[in-house]
Each structure stands twice: as C-alpha cells, then as structure tokens.
Amino acid sequence: MEHKSISTLLKLYVRLIGIVLILSGLILAVGGGFLISYGGSFYYLPMGIALFLSGVSIFTLRSWGVVLFALAYIATVAWALWEVGLDFWPLVPRLVALTGFAALVAFAYPSIMKYRKGEKSYWGGYVLGILLLASLGVVFFQSLQTHYGYLATEKPVRKTVSNDDAPKDWQQYSNTTKGTRFSGAEQITPDNIDKLKTAWTFRTGDIPENSGAGPEDQNTPLFIDNTLFVCTPFNKVIAIEPETGKQLWKYDPKITTPNWQRCRGLAYYTPVATEINQADLANAPTMDQEKELAAPNEFTQTNVTASSDKANACGARIFMNTTDDRLVALDPATGKLCEDFGDKGVVDLKLNMGDIPPGYHGPTAPPTVAGEVVVVAGRVADNYSTGEPSGVVRAYSVHDGHLVWAWDPGNPETKTTPADGKMYTRGSVNVWATMAYDPKLDLIYAPTGNATPDFWAGERTKYDDEFNSSIVAIEAKTGKIRWKYQTVHHDLWDYDLPSQPLLYDIPDGKGGTVPALLQTAKSGEIFMLNRETGKPLAEVVEKPVTQGNVEGERYSKTQPFSVGMPSVGNQTLKESDMWGATPFDQLWCRIEFASMDYNGLFTPPGMNKTLQWPGSLGGMNWGSVSVDPTTDYMFINDMRIGLVNWMIPRKDISPNASGIEMGVVPQSGTPFGAMRLRFMSPIGVPCQAPPYGTMRAIDLKTRQVVWKVPVGTVEDTGIMGIPMHLPAPVGMPTLGGSLSTKSGLLFFAGTQDFYLRAYDSHTGKEVWKYRLPVGSQGTPITFISPKNGKQYIVLTASGARQSPARGDYVMAWELGQ
C-alpha cells in the first residue's frame, strides 16, 4: 500500500506518542498483574494491554490504535464513575493523565490518516484535541475550588456568656486551664476583618532547623499585665511590649538538649488568682524532708533547697520547664529568676529519675498551675528501649519549689520521693501532652501516653496496661487518683493521648449543665466524659477488633469506640480510596494497600507489612480543640496520614537503628524492633484520597457536625516536596491549635501553607487570610491592650512541619482605620 508523505516532525510526534503509550501500558499491565495477584482491581491489567497495543499501532502510524485507545478511554471513564462517582479528587488520577494522552492522540489522528489514506483534512481530530485540553482547563479551575465538606446554612442561636469569658489577659496555655482557647474579645468581627493589618513583627533570633527530630517552634504566647511572653524552641523566654513589638527582656536557660527542642508554652501564677489556701499543703513534706528521703546513690542527685537569699523573691511568677529537665520560675516584670523558688529559681527535674541519656526525657508541654502547685510531666523518647526514664508526674509548691506530691504510674504507692533512695519507676506510662485543671473540683486531668516502646507490649506491667492511653483525674492538693478512663486497651499503635482535654459545662436540656470533659485522640475518636466521675456522657461501645499473632505479644479482644460522638478521619479504607497524582503512583499505592494486612481501625502490627490508619500522628494531635460557649460549638482540626509498619526480629536489627522519625526503631529490651514508614507514594503524596487535614465544628448540644472544611493548600508543598505554588484547597495535614472568639471568628495557622486564616465560626466560611513569611505550628492568641484599647491577634511563625522554609517570627495584627 502506498503511503502519503507527512513531515518528519509530524512523524516524530506520532511515534513519540506511541512510545509514551507503550511504556505507560507496560507499567500498568505489569503493575495490574501484581494487583490482581493480591486480590485487587482487574482494571489495570487489561487497560495496560490496551495502551500497549494502541501505542504499538500508533508508533507504526496505523489508525486502529487510535480506535483502540478511544475504546479504552471510554471504558476508563465508565470505570472511574462506577468506582468513585463524581467525587472530584478521586477522579483526578483516574482521568486527568489519560485525558492528556487522549488530547495528544487526537492531535496525532489527522497525521496518521493523512499518512494512510492521503486525504487532506481530518480537522475533527484537532477539534477533539482542543476540547480535551479545554476539559483539562476546567479540571484545573475546579482544583482551585473546595470539594470536601460543607458549610452551615443557618446561623446558630447564641447565648450570653459569663464574665469569666470577658476579654482579659491570656494567662495560661489555652487562656484558661480548661483547654478552651476562647476569648470574649469582639472588636474584630467577620464584618470588619478585611481591615485587619499587621501591627508589628518581632524576630527572636532562634531559627529552628528542619531536621525531622530537631527544634520546632510550637509556641502559644501568654499576655499578662500588658506584657506579651513568648518561648522559643530553645526555651528562651522573651517579654515583648504588645503595642510596639519592642523587647523588654530575655531569659536564656542555655539548654543542652540534643534533639526534640520545643517550648509549647508557659504557665503563670499569681497569688490573687488562687482558689486553694496554702495551708492545705501543710502536710506535704518539706524540702529538708525530701532530702532525707532521697539518700544519694549512683542514680540520685542532691535535692534542691530553697535559697536563703530572697533578693529577688517573686509574688506572681512565670513557670517554664526546659527540655533538659529543669523547672524555672521567672519574675514577669524583670525576667530574673525567682530566688525564693527551688535553688535560686530552678528545680532540677532529674532528681530520683536515674540515668537520663541526652534527649531521652524532657517536658515539651507547658507546666500546669493548679491552685498552689505547679505540675510537670515530660516527653519520653519513643521506641528506643524498655526501661527509659520514668513518666512520673510531680507537683511542686508554686512558692518555694518543694515537692508536694508525685504520681508514679509504675508504682502508685510512691506519693512523693521514692523511699530508700530508689528511683521513680523506669519505662512507665508518661504524660507528654498538656494537662487541664478544674479549680472548682480541684482536679487535674492528665492525658497519658504509653510505656515504651509503642509497638511491642508483651512485657508491659499491670500498671502499664492500667494507665496507658487514659485520662487520669488527680486531686491537685494530694496527688490522689480520683478516677481514670482508658481510650485504648493495651495500645500497640502509639495512640497515646496527645491533646489537652477540654473542660466544658454542656447544657443538659433541662436548663442546667453537666460538667464534661472532651478528649480527642490520635485514633480519630472523641470521648465525652463526666469530669466529676469519669463516666461516659456520650455512648462508648466495646467492639471486637482484629487479633494479631506475633509470638509473645498479647492482644485486647475489644477496643472502646465512642459511638455517641462523631469520629474524625478513621473510616475503614478500601482499595478504591487509594490515590496518587497520576495513575502510576495510584497503582503503586493500590498494590501496597492490597498486599498489606489491614482490617480497619486497631489492626495490630505483625511480622508482615501492616497498614495502620489513622497513623501514629493521628487523627488529632497536640494542637487540641477550641470552643465557643456562645454557641456550644467545639472546633477540631486533624491530620490524615497512614502508617506502614512491621515487626523485625532482634537479630536483624542494626545497632545503628535510631528510631528518629521514620525507619527502623530498635525497641531494645524486647524480642522485636519495628519498621515505620508513612503511607505515601514514591513521589511523596499520601496514598489515600484527600483531604489530608480538615477543620470542623461539632455542636456539643446535639453532638453533630455542623460544618467541616479542608484546611490548607499545596501552595507551599507538593510532589517530591517541591512547592506547587497553587492555592488548591486539597486539605493538608494540620499541626497546631485554633483560637475562637466571641465575635464569631476562628483563627488557625497550623497548615502546610504559609497562612494565618480566619473562619466564620458559625458557618465554616473562610473570611480572611494573611500570607506569612514562613509556615506556623503555633496557636494564635488574642487580647485587648489596656493601654490603647485595641484588640490584637498574635502568632509565632518559624516554619511549618516538614517545610524547609524557616524563620523566627512573632507577628501581631490589629484593625486598621
């Protein structure tokens, strides 16, 4: 057959398309075969074969390849609609790349026909190609729109709040000790927020590096007596004039911590604010008595003693715990150490803790002031070994720093200092999150972590299993346990409780209220308890869960599911939920999913590759919740990244395994180490469909979600970590807390893009955003200056988690004219 000539350039174009289709077909066919072998979808193998044959035909300039491709494309559209319906983001990897191929094939069609038949015009191919490209333009436009969740259509009925919620100082981590993150300030409203502008910017000089386990700025400032206080990742406390951003003083403890440096907040005590008389502590041991109880040995250190030099005695004081285990009391007016506290202003938290290798223990959450005591706990390095430093919770006198009581979760018989010079129990359950305190009930609420390590628990003690992943109510005066409630039994997933509980009085429908505690969890569950008794107010059901088969491990047959409250991002995944930027990485994720052990929430780690969803980050994390008492709305942000793990026999663990972030964690002292990997595609995209982070409002009266929206775009992140510079509201993992105001605004900055956002808290609509110099992991606060009467919003911003863009900013906003 005689062929008509076409230009060399057109022939090259057609054959390049053929090569692209051949290679794409091979990848999909081979991958599709693997997927079928794991019991997965049958789509990819025949589609790959079709693309391969189509590519061969087009490469040889035969028109039947175009027809075959068209049939394969139509079949793909039908399959995609059958599998995920009209859900935008799940359709993207199934159709966008193939639509791009279709446009290229359509443009090649006239050249192929001219080569085969010699006719002059097959303009229909060009028209179809243009239409297909136009459809991709529509997809691009739609990618900039929101495709998840919903806004509220009606404004809630608001109620009057008490004077306790009036705009005063921001004296504690969450404004109050109750975890509310609410302010009664209402100068800045949804109607005038477009006039919000920067008032000043301050640089701390501490720029955290982006090393995974290094320093991070996760600070929530305090505002007290017309002074702003911030704490840098290196525990430097800086006092700032709130109207100008001028530094008043700086305190530098010169920490020696080698990793995980962060200072999430400070605590404040003033004698006027206390509700407990100091006489109630009369029976507590004096510091001299502590010294007698703690006979020195190779593991103990000399007890601190109150300084006799009262040159800088303080009334009010700011407390900070450093990540190298010191409790510091500072004079808010000068930044000098309160020399009437501890040893010239410092209590050594290493006392009776035994050997603490650098970086293995240190508080990252702020202390909790509870009446006349300041309560501290600490983070313990996860997954290095058994027998790590103790998770003891200790209460010190706010006045002189002597130990009032101690709760040792590994030995509840220890009430203060261990007898006979012994140590607090090593490797016990710890409390790394921020605690809450109810002054009326005089109860501290401690959200607990796990006895180390996280993924092997065959050697945990009865006390470990009793207290892990629990809310523990402790009497502030005595340290006595009032009640406890467990959210995960025999935790094998690192589902420790990460967030500060919310203490809130919920309407009972009869004109009164019920004292409630709301606890968010990494598992995506939300528990609502009566904070007086620890009994559930929202129904919790014990459900059977998957059992494992790792030798020597034991498993809980059931786990608690808080069915009376909405769950967040912990639905059971299906293969069709797998995602990717292209059909190729989506196929990779589908193969991974199909090849792993997974049976929903609480699938235990095993010797085979196992999927944990939600992963060990959550769910919900340390940012905690905020609340609006005028509407009874609670606001929750979350992240959604799965974890892949499997157990590794001890003999196969490298002595260099560090356990920092992802990779092999040694879990020394147990029969197994473990591998941990984020469930992401080879190009760095999470394997499940968006969103990866959301914000939602839950009405605590009805316990229903009122609105929910994705939070964050890919503007400052993207494929292979390369910023895409597109404001596509995919919804990115969140880390940080929110601020709710009486005027109906919700502020949030803990996204992967560099913005402080404000939402209408009644509807969920984004009403304002401000471009930050770098991302933020901080929680914004607000206050009204007594000097000029203006309301300010303040936020620290030193870099989003995992972002290489770093800074050292403290920023303030005010209303312009």
Account of the protein in words:
This protein has 817 residues and is α+β, with helices and mostly antiparallel strands. The protein has a domain of 134 residues. Helices cover 18% and strands 23% of the residues. The chain is built from 8 helices and 40 strands. The chain has a 5-stranded mixed β-sheet, with no helix packed on it. It has a 4-stranded antiparallel β-sheet with strand order 2-40-39-38, with no helix packed on it. A hairpin with a 6-residue loop joins β38 and β39. α1 runs parallel beside α8, α3 packs antiparallel against α4 and α4 packs antiparallel against α5. The chain is globular, with a radius of gyration of 29 Å. It starts with 7 loop residues before the first helix and ends with a strand. 54% of the residues are buried. About 5% of the residues have low confidence. Keywords: Membrane, Oxidoreductase, Transmembrane, Transmembrane helix. This is Membrane-bound PQQ-dependent dehydrogenase, glucose/quinate/shikimate family. Its cofactor is pyrroloquinoline quinone. Pfam families: PQQ (PF01011). One of its GO terms (cellular component) is membrane.
Quick take:
Residues 170-793 form the Pyrrolo-quinoline quinone repeat domain. With 817 residues, this protein is of the alpha+beta class.
